[in-house]
Write a structure and sequence with these properties.
The structure is a homodimer of 197-residue chains.
Chain A lengths: L4 H10 L7 H13 L1 H18 L1 E2 L6 E2 L5 H4 L7 E5 L2 H10 L5 E4 L17 H10 L4 E4 L5 H14 L4 E4 L15 H9 L5
Helix pairs in contact in A: 1-2
GO molecular function, one term (chains A, B): zinc ion binding
Function (chains A, B): May play a role in DNA repair. It seems to be involved in an RecBC-independent recombinational process of DNA repair. It may act with RecF and RecO.
Keywords (chains A, B): DNA damage, DNA recombination, DNA repair, Metal-binding, Zinc, Zinc-finger
Chain lengths: 197, 197
């Protein structure tokens, strides 16, 4: 089927997206072809636009369309608070909650002995520079509650201890969570961090 | 976050794809931004190319890049055999099996009283034209084994009866299927259509 080659090429590319396999990529492409004018062409334009403009913030590692992202450039954000996250997706999740008014630092992953990821492979040197150079009073570690995330948190605490206040997100029962469905580690953490009512 | 507007627009568009929601769209877009050169730009180019070239075959309704699709234009395909399918996805599934050497006719859906889909909303008039005009000896109904699919099959049989041989795909136990996991209807169909060994 020679004349399907462009369509097949698109299916192959779509199948490389996380969460899509060959079957769902075919389904998505058929849907796109049916909605050529409404969806396929706008999506092509939007992707070309993002490919042209997207870049990492030189300061914090967030993804945006300028060398310094909108959060770093925003004067209304508290300069003293720095929230350290693993990934841009985590930054976006924090921003959706809308509760944090400081700035961010995206590490770009976690330390991992297994995958040979050291501090210099992450944005950790840049973090130390920022703590030294900016007027930061508190570093909030918002790393994932995984082994690699906690290892990375410990490493950062080691590096920054005594130079700035370091806090981390509270661990405990999630809002709406049912004890029966929680793992032992979460229950232990919640019990150890219990609060007087 | 003004400078994320292009990225947000892309996320909104991606979330309209079947199988992707807001969360997986965000994940896909972050993945695309990380692989800007390798994936995002090629995907944008490929989509623009498909948006420009994709069209429905005037003869059978298949999706391709010319007015007559590669299958209809292929002299080596048997002219006497016509396989009727609901959807382009079904045609692609038949082609992947590689066993059918005739041509196709894509209905573009099924008859449905509930959704007010009549014969003229589908490519059924065109099917009758083709059976009258082309040298077709056998029409193979490869419609889905759903109520709407079977209603549509019965309607086509009514229209074509006596003018051409009409067959349908066999129903029974799928290859690799376990009886314990099959529904009663499939077991009934398989038992009724049992074959001497």
């Amino acid at each position: 089927m020679a004349d399907r080659s462009e369509i097949d090429a698109l299916i192959d590319l779509m199948a490389k997206l996380p969460g899509l396999g060959p079957r769902s990529a075919r389904r998505a492409v058929l849907h796109l072809i049916r909605k050529r004018g409404l969806l396929l062409q706008p999506l092509a334009d939007s992707m070309a636009e993002v490919a042209r403009t997207a870049r990492e913030c030189l300061n914090c590692g967030n993804v945006g369309t300028s060398d310094i992202c909108a959060i770093c450039a925003d004067d209304r954000r508290a300069t003293g608070l720095l929230c350290v996250v693993e990934d841009v997706a985590d930054l976006w999740a924090m921003e959706r909650s809308g509760v944090f008014k400081g700035r961010y630092h995206v590490l770009g992953g976690t330390l991992s002995a297994l995958d040979a990821v050291g501090p210099e492979d992450l944005r950790i040197p840049k973090l130390l520079d920022r703590v030294a150079g900016e007027e930061i009073t508190e570093v909030i570690l918002a790393l994932n509650a995984t082994i690699d995330g906690q290892t990375t948190a410990h490493y950062i605490v080691d590096q920054l201890e005594g130079r700035v206040e370091i806090t981390s997100l509270a661990q405990g029962v999630p809002i709406g969570g049912e004890l029966d469905y929680l793992d032992d580690g979460t229950i232990t953490a919640a019990l150890n961090a219990r609060k007087r009512m």
